[in-house]
Amino acid sequence: MLDLIRKKQKTTVVKVVFWVIIATFIGTIFLVWGKGRDQQRDITVAAQVNGTDISFEQFRTTYSNMYNLYHNLYGQNFTPELEKQLQLTRQSINLLIDQALLLEEAERMHVSISDDELVKAIAEVPAFQVDGVFNKEQYISVLSYQRMTPELFEQMQKQQMLVNLTQAQIRSEAVVTDEDVADEYRRLNENVNLSYVAFKTGAFTDAVDVTDDALTAYYEANQEAFRVAQQVNLSLVTLSPADYLDQVVLEEGDIQRYYDRHLATYAIPEQMAAAHILIPVAQDADDAQREKQRVLAEQVLEKAQTGDFAKLAKQYSADTATAQKGGDLGLFQRGVMDPAFEAAAFALQKDALSPIVETRFGYHIIKGGEHIEAGFTPLADVRDEVEKALRLDEARKLAYEKAMDAYNLNRKESNFSAAAESLGATPVETGLFSQMQAIPTVGVSSELTERAFGAAAGELLAPVNTTRGVVLATVTENIASHIPELSAVKAEVTEAYKRQQAVVLAEEAAQKALEKIQQGAKLKSIADNGRKVQETGLFNRALGEFVPTLGNVPGLAEAAFNLTIKEPVASQLYSAGENFYIVRLKQLQPADPNGLTEEESQRLQQTVLSRKQDELLRSKLDGLKQTAEVIIAPAILRSMEEGNES
């Protein structure tokens, strides 16, 4: 497929690693989807979308990437509790399902990527270039380093381009009307204050009558909710590469060779700094509207040629993220900005102004900044860093060799104690963990997890490289997934039953109270049994579903702005966190969109357009899921349910 550009390029080979591609161009997860049962696939699948398999390996890779992302983001604050709150299992499987559905939708929409478009996209990846030009040997070298063929990479890249183009076409159907802008103004500026009485489930727990018969019936109807996932317990030792640093011996030329093999680590991508002023144009704008904005852009450009660019950006630019910074975009690489914008920006000298540049966002005036040429940091400047990385790499190899020697000597008898003793290491127990959890004391390691859950108790596992060192382990327990006897989980079942019944009692009491209020009774008349009338204070729609003093209550924030002085009582109960609320309008502060300035209107239009595009894409995906046959593996479903309970 890429033979044409492969034949036209230079032959210099520069060894680069694959993360450069991901960091500078791809930016999303690539998946190869195997359809049908005639193609090779994993023995088990994490999910199936209209007959398309998503393997557990794909799921584990996605989960691991997401886990590492949040771990790096939160650092020491990334606790197991936060991990559960983030519902990484749900996020990961939904991401994979969305990708599969979008690929199918691309086919239905007749979205296609031509060979020329694919060729152009790959040729523009900086990691495949030498001196800014695509290089065949560089391309092959990068992919072979990751044991990937050009054909596979091109297939993956084409699929991702199809997904991106399909998303763009779906989003392009969003339309913003004047009434939408007015509604957005009201959403941001209209304020209400609510009075409410809360019926909390916890207040009804003691009123639940628990009998053995009721508990048995409840458990029989909800056994799957108490299923125990397969769990293993490992006894392991971890060999830290740091402990072997003093055994590393480097020979002449080792540092240079290591630097050459990892040259991309020290790559300096071409970068450009720029500032811009955006004069927006709606995608559905007619010729007159476009011409009006074009004239405004020309006027601003004329002012910028002799005036203060930063001041003009603050005054005119619709890019709210940069306007207050004088339009400053900072440094950016090729492949990040809109192609037309990028071409104009990279052609500018420092402090020079571009002519008017048109993109899908509108008209831009660009001011050039610093230009950093692509290249590599010289070895002399990073010698200490390279040597440190090389020593650590060699130390890791030594640690793995030591662990492998111990494993080979004791694998026949599966004698973990002898293996650990030969390494001079003290074993630690992980405690029981499931397949969907990070391994205690180790973290996320799909390789170690796969081996552990496929091994019998007492089996010695081959060494595995992890982010914390080389792990040698044995399975001390392997407990199959099972539904426990009621007696084993009676306390847990009792608690769940009481919570369920307390919700029923709380809702019944709240519904009876609401009927009284709708018949004319005052809120304070139902404020008994520890309940009292409370207020939210003034708030507006900009808070989304969040309601002051209550938190996120689905549907309440939207309903609050539909209440009137004549009909101040919400017609239904609202619930959140197993609590029920009776709500009444206390105060309304209206907002008048007639006072909108042209500049404010344009900014609101962009805000609404972006939100509508996101909603359109989400709605499309939700619709596809409703008509799709999506089957998720029971183990993943249980993990998702556990995440909800947390």
Terminal residue distance:
49 Å
Poorly predicted sequence stretches spanning 5 or more consecutive residues: 1-43
Q: What's the mean pLDDT score?
A: 87
Assign an overall shape.
Answer: flat
What is the C-alpha radius of gyration, as a whole number of Å?
31 Å
Write structural notes for this entry.
- By secondary structure, the protein is α+β, with helices and mostly antiparallel strands.
- Helix content is 45%, strand content 17%.
- The chain has 22 helices and 23 strands.
- Strands 7, 14, 15, 16 and 17 form a five-stranded antiparallel beta sheet that branches.
- Strand 16 and strand 17 (469-479) form a beta hairpin.
- The longest helix has 32 residues, at 379-410.
- The protein is flat.
Short overview:
This protein is an alpha+beta fold and 646 residues long. It has 22 helices and 23 strands.
Topology:
Elements: H1 3-6, H2 19-26, E1 34-35, E2 45-49, E3 52-55, H3 56-74, H4 80-86, H5 88-108, H6 115-123, E4 129-130, E5 133-134, H7 136-145, H8 150-171, H9 178-189, E6 191-200, H10 212-221, E7 231-239, H11 254-261, E8 267-268, E9 271-280, H12 287-304, H13 309-316, H14 320-323, E10 328-333, H15 339-346, E11 357-359, E12 362-372, E13 375-376, H16 379-410, H17 416-422, E14 428-429, E15 433-434, H18 446-453, E16 460-466, E17 469-479, H19 490-518, E18 534-535, E19 546-547, E20 551-552, H20 556-560, E21 574-576, E22 579-589, H21 598-627, E23 630-632, H22 634-645
Antiparallel strand pairs: 1-3, 2-3, 2-23, 4-5, 6-18, 6-22, 7-14, 7-15, 7-17, 8-13, 9-10, 9-12, 11-12, 16-17, 19-20, 21-22
